[in-house]
Amino acid sequence: MTQVLGVAEAVLYVTDLARAARFYTEVLGLPLTAAFDEARFLQTGPNSTLILFNVEGIEKRVSVIPSHGARGRGHVALAVPAEEMDAWRGRLLAHGVAIEHEQEWPQGTHSIYFRDPDDNSLELIDAGHYPAVWARLQK
Q1: How buried is residue 135: exposed, middle or buried, by Cβ count under 10 Å (0-12/13-18/19+)?
Q2: pLDDT averaged over the chain?
Q3: Is 108 left (phi over 0), alpha (psi -120 to 50) or beta?
Q4: Is the pLDDT of residue 36 over 60?
């Protein structure tokens, strides 16, 4: 069985990270949960997050994590039950979808990255990932 539980994360690309973070925290009231050189993570619900990436920085980033598509393409992470990761991997492969990368996260969670036909970056992420991140950040 394979099921999608919801959108785990959405990504927006910005040219001024500080200005964007102020807008989302002050105007929309979203809690800032993490800040990195080129990104800000905002909690958008009990099981979802919005990531703001500095568009210039993300295009230059060197990482094992696939580029989320800073210009003309987007990224969506769909929350799935951890116990269904193998079934999802099988389903993707059965449909001829190439797996771009798999990531084991420090929280003990897992992600599978792949592309849609328009080259958007898609991710299946363990539904427990962001609750684990937020719990760790609260300590």
Answers
A1: exposed
A2: 84
A3: left
A4: yes
pLDDT tens figures, 87-97? 999 999 998 99
Enumerate the domain spans of the chain. 6-138
Closest CA to 44 of 33, 58, 35: 33
CATH class of 6-138: alpha beta
Quote the CA–CA distance of 99 and 49 in Å, as a whole number.
23
Written as six digits, the tokens of 13 are: 């690309």
CA dist., res. 39 & res. 49, Å (int): 12
How are the residues of the chain apportioned to helix, strand and coil, as percentages rounded to the nearest 5? 30, 35, 35
Residue written as token pair 């393409």:
73
- First-residue to last-residue Cα distance in the chain: 35
pTM of the predicted structure, to 2 decimals: 0.67
Token pair 């190439």 is at which residue?
98
pLDDT tens column, 45-83:
778 888 888 887 766 667 766 666 555 467 888 888 999
Residue 104: CB atoms within 10 Å:
9
